[in-house]
Every structure is written in C-alpha cells, then in structure tokens.
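Weekly modeling sync, notes
Attendees: S.R. (lead), two postdocs, one rotation student

Agenda item 3: backlog of single-chain predictions. S.R. asked that every request posted to the team notebook include the full sequence so nobody has to chase files. The rotation student volunteered to paste the first one in as an example of the format we agreed on. Action items at the bottom.

Example entry:
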Amino acid sequence: MTDLSVGLQVSESKSHSPISPDINPNAVLGAEIYIEQLHKFYGQVKVLEDLDLHIQPGEFLAIVGRSGCGKSTLLRLIADLEQPSYGEIKFKSARHLREGITSDDIRVMFQDPRLLPWRSIEKNVQLGLPKERHENASELLKKVGLEEKAALWPSQLSGGQRQRTALARALSHKPRILLLDEPLGALDALTRLDMQNLIEKLWTEQGFTAILVTHDVSEAVQLADRIILLDKGHIAKEFKVDLPRPRKKGIDFANLEQQVLNAVLAT
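Predicted structure, as returned to the notebook:
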C-alpha cells in the first residue's frame, strides 16, 4: 500500500445509471465494487454489521449519517487501512472482467491535504509518479487552476489551494476509485462550492468511481448519483439523486435535501 495521502482503496452501494456520456473516451474508467456481509468489531463494540453494498463503475456515491455511525470506518476498510472482522470487499475493472484492481488504482483525499511541507506544490503532485508521468502532474495543476503556483511551498497557499493540490495529486495517478473523506469540511462556504464544482468536473471528465463521506447533506445532493444513510453500522435508507447536472438548487433539489436531512435527524 502506498503513502496514505497519496493512494488507497474503495467501495460501495447498489446499481445506478450508466457512466456519463460526457466522459473522455480516453479516460481510465471506474471500478465496480462489491461489499458482502461486512462486519467490523472493536472488542465488544459493533461498528459495521452484515453490510452489503454494490457500486457501479463510474458511480458517485455519498455516505451520510451521524458521527459514530461507521462512515469513516467503512472508508478505512475500503482503503485497506483496517481489516474487516468478517466479510469481503471486492473490485472489478470496468475495462475487462479479468483485469484486477490494485492499490495503485485507488486514491484517497482527506480533510487534511497532507502535503509534504519541504516539497514544492509541483513536487507534491508528482509524489509517487515515475518520471515519464510527471507531465500528468502538470496537466492536473492546470486543471485545478494552480499552474502558476507550481514552484511555491504548501505554506504559501490558502486552505482551498492546498486542497486543490491534494486533489491534483490524487488524480495525477489516474485512479479508478477516489475516496473522499470529508475533504471540504474545513473550507469556507465559497471555497467549498468551488471545490465541489471542480470535483464534479474532473469526475465527469475522467470517469472514476467516487465515494464521498460528508456531514453536509446539501453537498451530498450536489455531487452524488446516490446517497446512503448509515445508522449503527447498517444502511438505514438510500436515495437516488435523479437530478440533471450541473445541478441547481431549485425545488426538486430542496425537496430531496430535506428528505435526506429528515432521515438523518430521525436516526
């Protein structure tokens, strides 16, 4: 397994619509994920119990729920940072049924950008890439609007710019799965909206499978194809987000947001 801030593994839910037609035909397509009878115990404490999820290749899944419901534990299990007590997490490539998915195909973006302070922004994005793929890092810096910041140190950037750097670093590896563990939680409201738009744009272009853990119900509705609500280690409810992209906060958006919020509050 590679450095935690650079790469890791993925998982999630039932079926959803086909991959977006806007995806670049040369993109690395997302992986399909199967979670079967997943249990996670810490001593006598049951965090996840008999969890079954199926995530389609290229799906954007959001996980919501109260603190302590098992959201981050589920991501850590998918990322292979922890091992299940029982059950399996399996991956299947969208390109070929017999082609496997490894840790190199999975990246994680955390709330803390986890940049190396002694490396420039460009060197941070290149971290873990062979020299022949360093141009991938340069391309991603352009896409996240940081081309002119490439030679600066992380301490010279704003919080939002550091998170853009972390996103560029994750995607420079062309992952098939991207795990997002509340990556926008520490940002101000306007920067958070900018980052949501950027993540959606790059997901649409590249076609990776995305799983977002968030406490922000509006963010879940804004980004996801499907939202699952975890409660006491179980899937309490599931919501399909059947809204056109790019999404606007009209009546349908507000109604779904309220439904999800009511469900969270009822747990």
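Discussion: group reviewed the output briefly. The domain at 31-101+176-266 is CATH 3.40.50.300 (Rossmann fold).
Action items: rotation student to repeat for the remaining queue; S.R. to check formatting next week.
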